[in-house]
Amino acid sequence: MEFEGRIQKVLPTRTGTGRNGEWKTLPFVFEYFETPDQRWSDRVLLETMDHDVMRQIGQFVVRGEGNKAVEVDGACQLSQEIKCRCGFSHSIREWEGKIFNQVRLYKFELLTAQETKQPEPQPQPIQEPLPEPKAEKEDDLPF
């Protein structure tokens, strides 16, 4: 699945050590509209271990003292909106008898202002008021 949207939040990088050595991942919240006429956006938490994608996203993160990302309410502060096209797939994974959702990012592409296709707002139908029910007479019984 590929969608155009924006990065709503960039979370701090996570690091760790696995059996193959050190690893680093950058989680972010991707907001998109599945269809142009969709009223509310969908959001998904994506993560990347691709250093090139991390650099592309990192250029929009505000840096403070020591070149550290400036965090506000647990998310990195952004210098501007990041519009992008993300491709991701989803499946489940089972580990130690528990089942987890697994979302994999397979494509990331920054968009310029000219490339973005904003969904045109759909006109909402005008709802006419329902007619007032007629008051029934007391002797107008059906039996």
Describe the protein in words.
The chain is elongated, with a radius of gyration of 24 Å. Strand 5 (71-72) and strand 6 (75-76) form a beta hairpin. The protein has one helix spanning 51-58; strands at 2-10, 14-18, 21-32, 42-48, 71-72, 75-76, 82-95, 98-110. The protein contains 1 helix and 8 strands; from the N terminus they run E-E-E-E-H-E-E-E-E. It is mostly beta strands and 143 residues long. Strands 1, 2, 3, 4, 7 and 8 form a 6-stranded antiparallel beta sheet that branches. A two-stranded antiparallel ribbon has the order 5-6. The protein has one domain (2-110): OB fold (Dihydrolipoamide Acetyltransferase, E2P) (Beta Barrel). The mean pLDDT is 85. The protein starts with a strand and ends in a 33-residue tail after the last strand.
